[in-house]
Amino acid sequence: MSVMFQAFYWDSPAKEDKVGEWWNFVAEKVPELSKAGFNALWLPPISKAATTTSMGYDPYDYFDIGDYDQKGGVKTFFGNRSELETLIASIHEHGMGAYADMVINHNSGADEEEVNPLDGEKRWTKFTPKSRMFPRDWNSFHPSRYEATLEGEVFAGFPHLCHRNPLVYMALMEYSQMIIEQLGFDGFRFDFVKGYGPWMVGTISKYKYQRDGKDITPFVVGEYWEDNSSIDEWLGKVNSFSDNQIAAFDFPLRYRLKDVCDTPNYDLRKLTEDGVIVAKRPMHAVTFVDNHDLENDGIAIANDKMLAYSYILVHEGYPSVFWLDYYNFGLARPGTKNGIDALIDVHHRYAGGDSQILHADPDLYIMQRNGHEGQPGLIYVLNNLGNQWSGTTVKTQWPNQKFIPVAWDGHDQAEPTERTTNEHGEAEFPAPPRGFAVYVPA
To answer: What are phi and psi of 36, to 5 degrees?
Structure first.
């Protein structure tokens, strides 16, 4: 059982007054993030982008990690290579992994315009990076002599790399090897995977990486931003090209959780319906509440966000926690039973085994995790009523068992009381108004 931390938000270096110093700033947070129970940090794109004040989702020179004077400066928005390597070393020293953000669909910041002879169109496709690694021209992008049409969707007005071009393919494989074998990353987060063939993600994922004489199998998650079955279809395709280790962000679940938090009188029974990734593919689902894109696009969750965090941290899947929520919005709440830190502890210590829904109506949802090996299981209660505590009697798998509340939050901060099941495993489990409660076997 693991928990990921997204160690940035949109324009975070500028908003935190850490332009060019983000890697150092994150390094300061590493000890406390490890202590809180995080297992891995997802870092923003590491390469020089079209400008040195860019978040990196418009890559220019993949092999400039902040050491060449181009595009407005030497460092990237986040720092340089030495600082990044120091950060990754610290992450490893504290028992965590580091995931690199891979933007291999599109490029920006070209040095010259060129006429593509295949269609006569003029585009910014001439790249002469100072690293002297991966120079590009029109044939590196679509339309190319190797592939006339895109495999996926178009992203903005940027030129899209043609991965079928052997020079592009080789450069991106070298880039991937540098990330794992030289810089020390442990996995990849692939941006905008709907824009190119799943085979490319699969190929990068299944390469036999080695570091310090040991084989490295990277963790891999793709961003397929849809609220429908196409994510499941992509997972089926991409894992057919790999060793079945590729996950996807569970956008369908996230949109349901936004409705739980922001839509008045949302019917909690919808949480039991099919269509979310974690229900069908729990081992391939990265669950989350918000991220840099949702925040930047103005569609982040606005109300009662702890309801969403409580849900992802007690159910199956690989939950991801967003920097802005944890730090800037103060939802970590260390030392209390009301914040993300308490839920991370629940996740690690108790949230094992299958989930079994014990009760669901429009305003009340109760679930038990059955337990597995060293994780004894739990009872989770989600209350959608805004003005009163709510609970009901449910039949659990534990007869004559005492339960204690270990995490809770809501519009009433009173502590839930202990519960004891009868000989049939039955007891009433309540939660605060517009809140949740987690009970565990004592």
So the answer is: -70, -15
